[in-house]
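Supplementary Text 2. Reproducibility record for the structural model of the 251-residue chain.

All settings were left at their defaults, and a single model was retained for analysis rather than an ensemble. We include the record here because the model underlies the residue-level annotations in Supplementary Table 4.
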Amino acid sequence: MNRLDGKMGQFAARAIAANKTLTYLDLRYNNIDDDGGVALAKALKKNESLTLVSLAQNRLGPNAGDALGSMMRRNITIRTLNLADNQLGPCLSYSNEYTRDFLPSSGPKICHALRVNGTITALDVSNNRLGADAAQALDQSFRRNPQSALRTLGFAGNELRADGGKHLAHALRSRVQLTHLDASRNRFGAGLCAGVGVAFAAALKKNHHLVHLDLKENGLGTKSGRGLALALQENKSLASLDLAANGFGPD
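Retained model, structure tokens:
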């Protein structure tokens, strides 16, 4: 594994900002830290050739996430952006051994960028603990920008829980032509939180674009399973639905 800390990240960023020919950039598994991520995001604002960028499996924090959200508002060439398996959610930052600061999730800023971005077709922010506010921001962006180019969204493992799950389901009722959504492992819950599954069922009755939906390992429960089964009788577009490990057994 390489290590692109803040200093090396800035060096790489200068090269990316100046380059006019690269179309594909894969920096996965490089131990890039938050400072390095900020530098790279600033460089990507200026780059006009890259169409695919992967910064997955690094150590990008909320500061890098905010910078990448700002980049998404300006960049008009990137079509595929992979930010999965980083640390973009809320965290504590230690400026020295005595001082610690709380950094809020960068999820809302990344998702709000989709209000104006018209080129990204595939975005993966899975496994970042972005939280419910990120799903709410996504829903708002889909309402504001129904012409969004986004078709594939990885949103797994983001601790959305019940509130975030409802926002995500509501987003599917927009006019955005999303075809693939991975919302697995978000702890939507059952029991009093069974409304999440019901919300997804209602969305599937109205949505005519989604082809693949992954809701596995969310503990949706039996009531949600029944609602989703009924929704499938009306939905005409879905070809793949993953509901594994949701506790759909007898009450």
